[in-house]
Automatic annotation (TrEMBL):
InterPro entries: AsmA (IPR007844), AsmA-related (IPR052894)
Signal peptide range: none
A biological-process GO annotation: regulation of protein targeting to membrane
GO cellular component: plasma membrane
Limits of the AsmA domain: 2-288, 328-503
A Pfam family reported for this protein in Swiss-Prot or TrEMBL: AsmA
Protein name: AsmA family protein
Length: 615
């Protein structure tokens, strides 16, 4: 929008100046062909580009000096391979008062520009064609001034009764001549314009990205003031909006005061609010845009809900959905130095509330950092450092959260739609991932961590009921797996590798048993598996040992498998039965061994006696 606004203004000024020269020349010569030849020659000398004016220049004198033409095309600067013209104008007209020109003032009645297209493209050394035009004009102006210092003149006083732009499109091409974005100004109207004075302005249009990307609608209204030298723009009472932004955001609004100053760099300042789908955030920002962009920003809000950003998708939906092109953001960050802060009273994500949210913002290259990020959440405290790498495809996220006294079930339900675990405790992670939504990020998860919970439950599995079923040798059925397992404590170490998460040194303590072992879950298949050992306690221990005395002090093998949606647990009942009779088997084995030994000794003794007798 900044590029469109700035260069549209420069283009308008250039067109007005062109028509002033044309009007004066027509009065003197009144020769359309000769004038077009003169204009074409001047453009060639100043920019190196070719100017073509297909239609004749028509002139009228009453009640204003009016001139109009069309079919204008300006070629690309030298060295640019884009086959499209840099600028095309379907029709343009302007009316000018003659008498004020004598005193050095310019009073323009109405300027109308219709069906114009500006094609911005990259050329040698990454320079845009607009930069090339600007540098050529500056170089020519400096050369003319050096040759004849008297050519330097004071700026003319310009007033404009009405400016109207209709169907003005800016196309942005990359170095490979591929169209990346198209911004269309469908209508812009400014009336009674005087430099240095505020005047109402309104504009609307659309923004089209790559194929399959939504077409966005935008609008702008406010009071506009342009300085006498046309180097500063101020916009008060600004009310701007962009609709149909993405599948996550329907609309973005911007209100307040905006100023743009052009010098060695472009200085932009804004004070006001930005609205995400109607939710207002106070925004104060200042930016110096040049070879390096220095940006300072402050964001604050009493309350903000971002449920739309936490929607999960299936693996097929993720693979079918085209990845958003974030390279423009990455390129901008690489040329920027960003500093900022964030403060939100209440941040809501999928029915989970973060309060007293604060964060510091800064970037290193294409990576944007939140360091530190602090909040109260899930009935506890959250402190983390986080970073987002916009140059990575897909988006790369790194987090190191430290969560204390949190309800883990609320966290898992909020971010991953996982409602199988609850408990109060701590979670320490050092994780990296990539993806556009929570599901994809979980599938690309890598890193380590530790979990330590108390007073929680595992949903969907009743281990005590499973043990009772095994002891009575009842058949397993769906009812066996229903219910939940309540525990006093749970802890374990986490290690993730591309979505495969290993849980080692895992232990659960409950009133009736202790469970230790290791487990694995695969986020790509949404599967789980684990092997553990059960140590029974209390009444359940007494019940088992009363029925199977040989199981006293024994650890029971316990297996976990299935999916996130349907987890299944199994106790090795054969091992239990085997353990019951293992003692009898061992006794019988010893008895047989002793019997064989005695028989062998008897036979060997008889053999030796017989041999001695024979000798």
């Amino acid at each position: 929008m900044k590029t469109l606004f700035k260069w549209s203004l420069r283009l308008i000024i250039a067109i007005v100046a062109l028509f002033i020269v044309a009007a004066v020349a027509l009065i003197i010569f009144f020769n359309s062909d000769q004038l077009k030849t003169t204009l074409t020659k001047q453009v060639k000398e100043k920019t190196g580009a070719e100017l073509v004016i297909e239609q004749d220049l028509s002139l009228s004198f009453f009640p204003w000096l009016a001139i109009e033409t069309g079919g204008i095309a300006l070629s690309q600067p030298p060295g640019f391979t884009q086959d499209k013209s840099a600028l095309e104008i379907g029709a343009v007209s302007a009316s000018i008062k003659l008498l004020p020109l004598i005193s050095g003032d310019i009073e323009v009645g109405a300027v109308s520009l219709t069906d114009a297209t500006l094609n911005i493209t990259q050329g040698p050394q990454g320079k845009s064609n607009l930069q090339a035009f600007t540098e050529a004009l500056q170089k020519k102006g400096e050369a003319d001034t050096a040759q004849d210092p008297s050519t330097t003149k004071e700026a003319l006083e310009l007033s404009l009764q009405k400016l109207e732009l209709t169907n003005f499109t800016v196309n942005q091409f990359d170095s490979n001549n591929k169209l990346g974005q198209s911004i269309t100004l469908e209508q812009l109207v400014i009336e009674d314009f005087h430099p240095g004075e505020f005047r109402p302005v309104s504009a609307s249009g659309k923004i089209a990205g790559e194929v399959n990307q939504p077409v966005m609608k935008w609008s702008l209204a406010g009071d506009l003031k342009v300085s006498q030298d046309f180097k500063q723009i101020d916009l008060q009472k600004m009310d701007a909006s962009v609709d149909n932004v993405s599948s996550s955001i329907q609309s973005i609004g911007l209100t307040g005061v905006l100023s743009i100053a052009q010098g060695e760099s472009t200085l932009i300042e804004h004070k006001g609010t930005v609205a995400l789908d109607g939710q207002k955030i106070q925004l104060n920002a200042s930016a110096g845009l040049g070879k390096v962009n220095d940006i300072k920003v402050s964001l604050s809000a009493d309350s903000l809900t971002l449920d739309q950003f936490m929607a999960t998708s299936s693996k097929k939906e993720i693979e079918a959905k085209p990845a958003a092109d974030l390279s423009p953001i990455a390129d901008f960050l690489k040329q920027s130095r960003i500093q900022g802060d964030l403060a939100i009273g209440s941040l809501n994500l999928k029915n989970s509330k973060f309060t007293d949210v604060t964060a510091k913002l800064f970037n290193k290259g294409a990576t944007l950092h939140l360091d530190p990020f602090k909040a109260k959440a899930f009935q506890g405290d959250l402190a983390t450092t986080a970073s987002v790498d916009f140059a990575s495809k897909p988006l790369a996220l790194a987090v190191q959260p430290d969560l204390n006294n949190i309800q883990i079930g609320d966290l898992l339900a909020a971010f991953f739609d996982f409602e199988r675990l609850s408990g109060l405790g701590a979670l320490d992670l050092d994780m990296k991932t990539k993806g556009s939504d929570a599901k994809q990020m979980l599938q690309n998860l890598n890193g380590t961590g530790h979990i330590n919970l108390s007073d929680g439950a595992l949903m969907g599995i009743d281990i005590e009921k499973l043990i009772a079923s095994g002891l009575s040798l009842q058949s397993l059925n769906k009812e066996t797996y229903s219910g939940k397992t309540v525990f006093a404590g749970m802890k374990g170490d986490l290690k993730a590798n591309n979505g495969v998460i290993d849980l080692s040194n895992f232990a659960i303590n409950s009133p009736v048993f202790d469970l230790v072992g290791k487990a694995t879950t695969d986020a790509n298949k949404e599967s789980i598996g684990g092997n553990f050992q059960l140590v029974l306690k209390g009444a359940l221990k007494e019940q088992v040992e009363a029925k199977y005395p040989k199981l006293a002090g024994k650890k029971l093998p316990f297996e976990l498998k299935g999916t996130w949606a349907e987890p299944k647990a199994n106790i090795d009942y054969e091992a239990i039965i085997k353990a019951e009779y293992q003692g009898k088997i061992d006794e019988k084995k010893e008895e047989l061994e002793d019997k064989v030994k005695d028989e062998l000794e008897d036979k060997l003794g008889d053999f030796l006696k017989k041999k001695k007798k024979d000798n």
